[in-house]
Design goal:
The protein has 95 residues and is mainly beta. The protein is 9% helix and 32% strand. It has a four-stranded antiparallel beta sheet with strand order 2-1-3-4, with helices on one face. The protein is globular and about 40 Å long.
């Protein structure tokens, strides 16, 4: 994986708990204030901040299910987390 952007980026994977609407996991992850109760997902790995041009490898053993992947680093202009600029997605890992 290579960061072709002009800013640092990361990628975090979260497996959504079975029976949970992925939109609820996204809302929990992106809430401005902590949500009550346990998170509706489990961390599944990722890559920490990569500088522009940096290359990194990752090996994940993703079990079947729904995952939220996101970048939480702040944007250089305004400091808004990158996920607020669309760097968040729900993916499905089939059985």
């Amino acid at each position: 994986m290579k960061n072709d952007g002009t800013q640092p980026h990361e990628i975090a994977f979260y497996r959504v708990n079975d029976g949970v609407d992925p939109a609820n996991a996204v809302a929990f992850l992106t809430a401005a204030t902590p949500r009550p109760g346990p998170p509706p997902f489990a961390s599944a790995g990722g890559i920490t901040a990569m500088q522009s041009g940096q290359v990194a490898g990752i090996d994940l053993d993703l079990k079947p299910g729904k995952y939220v992947i996101a970048c939480f680093l702040p944007d250089a202009v305004g400091g808004v987390p990158h996920f607020a600029h669309g760097m968040i997605q729900v993916i499905d890992v089939p059985a």
